[in-house]
Design a protein that fits this description.
The chain is mainly β. It contains no helices and ten strands.
Length: 116
Amino acid sequence: MSANGSFVRAADVAWDITGDGVRRQVLGHGTELMIVRVEFVAGAVGALHHHPHRQATYVADGRFDVTVGDETSVLVAGDCFYASADEVHGVKALEDGALIDVFTPVRKDFLMPGLW
């Protein structure tokens, strides 16, 4: 799952600051699959963007305004969204919260410090 073997302890994984009020923690990955926790403070934005990876996201905590393609919806803890490869998507935290992102294939750019 990572360089440390099959198990990942979140307490042992560093956080990357990715924006104002946003931080990311890569919890595990192989060559084709990656899981990432992203925490937001209220009002923080994950700007509209796209990438060649397919992404499924679970709302672990909080409430988010989520845009995928030309649709926008408010999602709360327990909800999910999916973005196809190269589909524009982004979020705004309506309150403090956390997302669990799953990517395929792995986001190599998340593993290379200094690129974000």
